[in-house]
Amino acid sequence: MTLLCVFLCSFNLFLFRIQEAAKLGKKVMVLDFVVPTPMGTTWGLGGTCVNVGCIPKKLMHQTALLGQALRDAPKFGWKLDDKAVKHSWDTMTEAIQNYIGSLNWGYRVSLREKSITYENAYGEFAGPHKIKATNNKGIEAFYTAEKFLIATGERPRYLDIPGDKEYCITR
Ligand SMILES: Cc1cc2nc3c(=O)[nH]c(=O)nc-3n(C[C@H](O)[C@H](O)[C@H](O)COP(=O)(O)OP(=O)(O)OC[C@H]3O[C@@H](n4cnc5c(N)ncnc54)[C@H](O)[C@@H]3O)c2cc1C
């Protein structure tokens, strides 16, 4: 089988690359699997940037900027209601998670539209051109490919030093 087999990555760049391969008539497959963090957290298709990196971070920054703008607004002529403006952390996190969910879904649709197979499975090389893919039920499948694009990223881990469990963020 002519198969370009991929672990997922910063998604837009990745999508561009594999779509080009698919356009050239290559049979393309994506493997992406999120091993749970020490807190048991997992997330959807799109890698670190979309799920727990750039995107949620920027939306939180935007939340803070809006709060500051509301405070500054009266000095520049805006008349706000007398009631104190309050922030709801729950509303913010729900909105951010909904947005991320829409991106996860959009990526799945993009892959399907390009006839790119997506497997939510953990990949390990089982030979020079062979991958073992294990899904979350422990079911194994083997795939062969001519070429592999690997972008596995990195995960935070405890440093095994005094205070790491108290002060390191591992969500
Ligand atoms: C809080 C935070 C904020 C950030 N903000 C920015 C920013 O503003 N701008 C910026 O440019 N960068 C930012 N980054 C960095 C950016 O998210 C990463 O540089 C980028 O996501 C790395 O892409 P990657 O493809 O190498 O890995 P990842 O995006 O981590 O993707 C790798 C994927 O492969 C999966 N995987 C790993 N091993 C396997 C395997 N064996 N089988 C199957 N799947 C596997 C992983 O679970 C993951 O889904 C931020 C990161 C964090 C944590």
TrEMBL record:
The organism of origin for this protein: Anolis carolinensis
Superkingdom field: Eukaryota
Essential cofactor(s): FAD
The GO annotation for biological process reads: cell redox homeostasis
Q: What class of enzyme is it?
A: oxidoreductase
What is the protein's name according to its record?
L-amino-acid oxidase
Extract the signal peptide range: 1-21
The entry lists its GO molecular-function terms as: flavin adenine dinucleotide binding; L-amino-acid oxidase activity; oxidoreductase activity, acting on a sulfur group of donors, NAD(P) as acceptor
EC annotation from Swiss-Prot or TrEMBL: 1.4.3.2
Could you list this entry's UniProt keywords, alphabetically sorted.
Disulfide bond, FAD, Flavoprotein, Glycoprotein, Oxidoreductase, Redox-active center, Signal
Domain spans labelled FAD/NAD(P)-binding: 19-169
Family, per entry: Belongs to the class-I pyridine nucleotide-disulfide oxidoreductase family.
